[in-house]
């Protein structure tokens, strides 16, 4: 007992092929949560550059010449931004659906079907994301 | 642990005998022993060769490590070819490998029927009870490792001390302040209550759940699924009475109690006794909230 071998934590994610549904749900929920937090701060930072638009004249706003409109229009002109928006929607939708699933788990409802509800939230996320593509990509090319 | 004591005394008496001045008889016996060992090695090598060539054998890859043997200080995997028989479990295969090829292969086992809980192992990437896992259900080669997130003492044996500490932390025994009137009267439990705690009483302390839990791996103070399940078994037992239940809730609602659970369901997936561990943890969470939420 004097010596023992500690294999550490590395093995955990090296074994992703053997993960069960609940484990994947946990990983995706963490991941999407962090992405949403990251997006939130980027969102605040980018939009705050448009604050001077509040002082712009009515005519400038109507013509779309104010800083805010200019920023949004130039961002939306980038194909990369359009694609990232689709990704953001996917991440947000999954986080919401899985969050609902976790809420039910906390209430003790349907714990036997926890893997099925995870697959359902994945499929629903996929469907909603695919359905959103025309809206987000329209006019980008 | 008690089973090891006679063995140790046996060993020490053996070494005593060896330190005595060697007589001619002793030399002869030593020579005989050496020859027997050589023959055994040769036979084992032949057996292994034959088994490797045979098609109806199972390939086992077994984790080997022993800090006390020079050649085994660096962990490695050894391959064993074990003849398959119908109904063979992972434990059967390991025992065959130990008895036929390498007597130093070390693993815990006792009852061989999923009751004692001593042979939880990491088989093909999942925590399994070796005596309850059919070889025919597994993909080959069968990879057998000691339980993750526990320190390996030797080969497939891990140090369970921490797990037992967590189990004892929840006071896993019946306590009550409400005794029946007559001295010989029984403490009866009604059928519904028994049914409620039925699954939680099945725990065999194998440690598979604790090993599968990511949170327990990162937080050494977390009670872990098995201990919380034990707490559930007694907290939900109506015979214990309200004040004892209160005491139990205080243990499990601490920082490293039920609130560490992030409903990964890993423990529920691996439990060899099919205990709905996450179910029980979640119910205790709700009990803890109800216990602390007071609107008056």
Automatic annotation (TrEMBL), chain A:
Swiss-Prot/TrEMBL keywords: Heme, Iron, Membrane, Metal-binding, Transmembrane, Transmembrane helix
Transmembrane stretches, start-end: 21-41, 79-97, 118-140
Compartments where located: Membrane
InterPro entries: SdhC_prok, SQR/QFR_C/D, Succ_DH_cytb556, SuccDH_FuR_B_TM-su
GO molecular function: electron transfer activity; metal ion binding
UniProt keyword annotation of Repressor present: no
SUPFAM superfamilies: Fumarate reductase respiratory complex transmembrane subunits
GO biological process, one term: tricarboxylic acid cycle
Cellular component GO terms, alphabetical: membrane
NCBIfam families reported in the protein's UniProt record: succ_dehyd_cytB
PANTHER family on file: SUCCINATE DEHYDROGENASE 2 MEMBRANE SUBUNIT SDHC, SUCCINATE DEHYDROGENASE HYDROPHOBIC MEMBRANE ANCHOR SUBUNIT
Name under which the protein is recorded: Succinate dehydrogenase subunit C
TrEMBL record, chain B:
Spans traversing the lipid bilayer: none
Location of the Succinate dehydogenase/fumarate reductase N-terminal domain: 60-164
UniProt xrefs under SUPFAM superfamilies: 2Fe-2S ferredoxin-like (SSF54292), alpha-helical ferredoxin (SSF46548)
GO MF annotations, alphabetized: 2 iron, 2 sulfur cluster binding; 4 iron, 4 sulfur cluster binding; electron transfer activity; metal ion binding; oxidoreductase activity
One of the GO biological process terms: tricarboxylic acid cycle
Keywords, in A-Z order: 2Fe-2S, 4Fe-4S, Iron, Iron-sulfur, Metal-binding, Oxidoreductase
Pfam families from the UniProt entry: Fer2_3, Fer4_8
KW Signal (keyword) present: no
Biased composition (Basic and acidic residues): 21-30, 38-53
CC cofactor: [4Fe-4S] cluster; [3Fe-4S] cluster; [2Fe-2S] cluster
Domain 4Fe-4S ferredoxin-type: residue ranges: 201-275
InterPro entries linked: 2Fe-2S_ferredoxin-like_sf, 4Fe4S_Fe-S-bd, Beta-grasp_dom_sf, Helical_ferredxn, SDH/FRD_Iron-Sulfur, Succ_DH/fum_Rdtase_Fe-S, Succ_DH/fum_Rdtase_N
Residue numbers spanned by region Disordered: 1-53
Family classification: Belongs to the succinate dehydrogenase/fumarate reductase iron-sulfur protein family.
Record protein name field: Succinate dehydrogenase / fumarate reductase iron-sulfur subunit
